[in-house]
Structures are given as C-alpha cells and as structure tokens.
Amino acid sequence: MSTLSSDLRMQLVGARGIVERNLYLTRRYIWWDVAFFVWTVANTLTIVFIAEGIKANGGTIDVNRQTTYLLVGAVLWAYLGIIFEFLTETVAWERWEGTIEYTFMAPLRRGAHLAGMGVFAVIYGMIRATLLFAVVAAFFSVEMPKADFLTALVVVLVASISFTGIGMMTAVLPLISPEKGAQLGFVAQGLLLVVSGVYYPVDILPGWMQAVAVISPATYALDGVRAAILEGAGVSDLWGELGALVLIGVVAVPLGLALFGAGERYAKRHGKLKRSG
Amino acid sequence: MPQPRTSSISLNRTRRPDVAAVEVSGLTKSFHRKPGRTARRASGAPRRRTVAAVDGISFTMAQGETIAILGQNGSGKSTLVRILSTLLLHDAGTATVFGNDVLRDAQAVRRLVNRVSVEASFFKKMSAAENLSYAARFYGMGSSQTRKQIPEILERVGFPSSRMGEPMENLSRGMQQKVALARALLTSPVLLLLDEPTTGLDPRSKRDVQQFIREIRVTHDSTILLCTHDLAEAETLADRVGILDRGRLLVLEPVESLVRGYGVTTLEEAFFAATGREIDPNAEDGDDSDDDLDDREVFA
User: What is the pTM of this model?
Assistant: First the structure.
C-alpha cells in the first residue's frame, strides 16, 4: 500500500473514531438529550404560535402558510445550534476532560478530526431537526400539500458543508478560553440567523444587513427549504441557492480549518491545551 | 537489552536505525506571566514577566534506552514532555525524535510517540474499552484490531476484563492509570513519555505500574523518558538519571556515576547536592502555560 493511501486510510479510520466517540457519549447522556429536546420543542412552539397570535390580534394572514414559514426558521435555527454546539462544545469538553492533548498528539490530521466531528453533528442534527419538525407540525396540524421534503433535505445537507465550516471557526474559541469560548458559538449562531431571514424575509432588513445576508449560507438554506416545503420547488428549481451554498462551503471549510489551525498554534505556543476541569 | 518487537499496527513510521531516539539541543521554552495589579503596585514589577520553563536543555537518548528525569514541582519536566509530544511549540533550540524534528516533522513524530501523564485523562462517562477504542482509531486501528488487542493489553497491565465496560468514573485512580498505560501501549509507541505515571497512586497500584514499566523495558521495542519525583523509581527503572532544576538540566548520568560525581552515597543526597533542595515525592507538576507559573522563580 502506498504511503498516501495508507495515510488516507488512517485518517478515515481516525475520523470514524471521532464519530464513534460522539456516539458513545450521546448514548451515555441520552436522557439529557431528551430533556434538551423537550426544551427545543417548547422554544419552537413559542415562535410558531406567533402566527396564531397575529390572527387573534386582528391581523389578516394565511395562518397555515405563516406557521410553516416560522416552523422552517425555528427548525433551521435549532439545527444550526446543534451543529455549532457539537463542534464547539466537543472541543470545550475535551479540554475539560483533558483528552484534547491525546487527540492533538495523535497522528490524526486536523481536517479528519474536524470532519469526523462535523459528520456526527450533521447526522445527529438531522435526526433531531426532523423529529422537531414532525412534532411541531403535528401539534399545529400544519398542512403542507406541495411540500417536497427530499429537496428540502438536499438543501440542508448542502448547507451543512458551510455550517460545518463556520462551526470549525467557532470551535477554535474553547482552545483559547475553555470557560467562555463555547458560549461565543451561540453569538455566531445568532448573528448568522438574524441577517439571514430566520423568521422574516431578508428584504425587510436594513441595506447593510441585506449585504451581509448575501454571504450567509443560512440565507440560501432558509430560502431553499421554504421554497421546497411551501411551493414544492424541486432540486432543479433551486440551482441558484444550491450553487451559492456550494460556493460558500468551498470557502468556509478551508477558512474554518485555517482558523482552527491558527488557534491550535496559539494554544501550543502559550500552553493552553492543558486540562481545564 | 530490550528485545525488538514487531509493531502491531502500520503507521508508516519514519524511524531510522542510525539516529538517536531523542536529540535535544539548546531547547528553550518561556512563558509570560502577568502579576496581579496589587502585587505590581506593591513591588513595582513589570506588567509582563518572562519565565523560562525549559532553559537551554541538551541531551541525547539512544534507541531502547530508559532515562529518568528528576525534578521539583515546576522544574520543567512536563514542559519537556509536552514539547517532545508536539503539544507545545518551543522558542529556541531543536528537538528531534528518531531524526524527525518536533516542529517541522510533527506528523512523523506523532506516529512514533505516546504519553502517560500524571492525570489519566479520559471521557469519564465512557468505559475503558470505549476510551481505548476511539483513541486507537486515531492511530489507524480498525475494529478487528481493537476487538482483539484491547482485552489483551488491559490484561497485560493487570486491569480486570470484567470491568472493561464500566464507566471510567467508577474506577479508582490506580485503575485509571493502568488504562492510561494501556492506551499508550496499544499504539506500540517507539518513544514512550511517562510524565509522573505513579504520582498520587496508592502503594500497590504504584508497584503494579512500575512492574509494568519494567516489563515494557524487557519486552517492548521502546525508548522511555520517565519524569518523576520518585527517587527509587528513577534509580530502579532507568539506565541514566537526569536532574532538572528551574528549567536547566544539571546532570544526566547513570546513578552510580552521578552519586560518585557529587561525592555522596545516595541519589537523594546527590539531588540535594545538585539543587540545594530536597525533592518532594508527593508534589504534582504544573509548569507549562502562560497562566500557571505563580510558584516559579522569575528568571528574566
């Protein structure tokens, strides 16, 4: 076996190790995850009830459409939260347990390491987001006659590349500050969504925010998923959104790796990899 | 002499038979420390002080050799181990592992090295088998290898197989340290860095771990760098003993010549003669970040 293919195999096995480890940890903390899921459902309900509330206050809106519109935003918010949480908190957790030194001294390349974390986060996030969508949609008896769920899934999967890239950027924060770094992941999540039209069209935003929305992958993810679920748009109707998501992903992943690498070098220069718990 | 043993995993190791296992030359690593505002006002100390954790260290280790480094709390032992395991970037000098520079060829070094530290760091909710399994994946070991080798290695370190599935948090510190040894050996490292592996262990666990290190010396094709506070441990396990004090390596010789050199009869006396202080066998090290140097002497 050539050195290159041997190294590639090793990196793939290493990335699989990360996925396995997160699976073990998820199993060990499953009841905490259930409790957190209940919180997410409650949080999503408070947002989606806004559609009913507007009607009750005398507004004239298509409640079913608006409920679906808000539901997509809330579920995508939750999904993005899971991706960022896994990528950022896993690093904070590794610092807390002291295992990060063993991860960083292993011949596992950072790309494989972060890819393993990203793959698990996407799989786990997809399961949680799908359940959340189903539970809240059932609660409101939302009707989605035109919905193309497969296309919505494709849009979210393509968007996940960019989300993972941005997650890599936020994952560097716990390397620098294990106590507060992970919380800054939530800041990134909030900033990303506020400019991306999470519960409203981007058109209503001030001009400068609309300009930022152009480079946010969440903008295209929200547009694509809403088009698929509300209008029944297929993959062939969403080339613009999918193309933009691929383009942002192509930039975000290498940028995320570069930033994480810079953070790692900083941590190694200043002795920041020691156990913090 | 240790008997060569074929590595159980293929890591494409860049290990040359004609080079030293470890070659360190003029190795220096400093950290910065900010004194508190009150202390600064009281003493007029500068805003930021530089502390040399490792100060111009030079030494060579032959392949298959075991050396022990003795030093007080904060002497620089952990800093040295972290530099050799590519976890810290040094400021000056060079360090190579089997001819691979720890900065330039870090990936090659990582294939050759593993480490056991004073803290057996694990995911506490996960079992010993799960912790070993995922750590082994980072070195390219697949499921079939780990299924076979994890029970074997745990048995070798004296860990009961009936407890393999228990969360680490249920295990005593001695048991956790045995799992840490198993984790390091599972990847068949050719340079094993042992950073106070027996500190804080009860006497029986300590004996078990020391016995296992002896066994590794005989059966495993490893070079061992052992950092310790334990004089007897250093004396019985190592071919040569070094004394590290305030970041400087004062001496590195076989025990007999070290003791003779200082004109004393025991290693403890030699340590005292070299450093002017007694060694604290229960102290734990903590000397290698910008934040935790408050018990260190300021050199510059």
Answer: 0.87
